[in-house]
């Protein structure tokens, strides 16, 4: 049974089964939501036909979008904002899809577990080297005051069983409450970090039980930060894997902010803010496609073309600005420099914030 059978006159109803809009018998489709006007019960074959129909429809849109995006810089944005939207895929959805694919490829190509193991091996060997070096210094001819300082440093790098102290942990911790807020916060993070490193506890409830202290917002926050710092330092591969998984959505949020700076230099009534957003998503989609291609070439031929991809993108961005905003070469070059400067500044600030927030919450 094909689609034409489902829309035959004998199966047509007097209202849309999807949005309940009143229909005439002459209506093959609902003019409001586009659903087929048919009261016939769906069969498995109908479902299969609809599935492949939607795939071919999207494939046609995707092909037209890629062709216009790659071969006609700026033209696709011009046509999309002027109302030709059914021809192309949604720029926001397309950008998110391409970006997710790219970062999935990065995650697949990066051995984050190996990074974790390498870092942990280095930390262990480095700690043993420092401990042995300090022990050798202690045996040499140095002052008693220097020996005391070396003892404190050795204590820091010794294994768990050698670190038991005569002072009760609760008393040590509560002494920190007498300090000023900033110093107290720093020292509590350091205290919790040191205990986590020594494997005395790993969860907040375990810390409260071990130290015999009351729970508080300050203690909970400082413990969380200490644990996050420990995990980030000892498991950088896992940290970056988590960060990479969030990047497509972070970039998706940042692009509208970047578009506001474009709006500042193209503030004429001819362009609206949403036009600049669509332009940003189209150009960044092309950039992501270029990075994806360079990654594939790196996999297949072990050739690094990231520098070439960036140069191609700069040329593409200039052509897109000329094609969409239709200004003179001089004005376009000046605004091109401005836009890229703003992008670099925003990228640097946002990357710093993302890494710091990621480290705090990892």
TrEMBL record:
<feature type="transmembrane region" description="Helical">
    <location>
        <begin position="273"/>
        <end position="293"/>
    </location>
</feature>
<keyword id="KW-0812">Transmembrane</keyword>
<dbReference type="InterPro" id="IPR022134">
    <property type="entry name" value="DUF3667"/>
</dbReference>
<keyword id="KW-1133">Transmembrane helix</keyword>
<protein>
    <recommendedName>
        <fullName>DUF3667 domain-containing protein</fullName>
    </recommendedName>
</protein>
<keyword id="KW-0472">Membrane</keyword>
<feature type="transmembrane region" description="Helical">
    <location>
        <begin position="338"/>
        <end position="360"/>
    </location>
</feature>
<dbReference type="Pfam" id="PF12412">
    <property type="entry name" value="DUF3667"/>
</dbReference>
<feature type="transmembrane region" description="Helical">
    <location>
        <begin position="299"/>
        <end position="318"/>
    </location>
</feature>
<feature type="transmembrane region" description="Helical">
    <location>
        <begin position="239"/>
        <end position="266"/>
    </location>
</feature>
<feature type="transmembrane region" description="Helical">
    <location>
        <begin position="92"/>
        <end position="110"/>
    </location>
</feature>
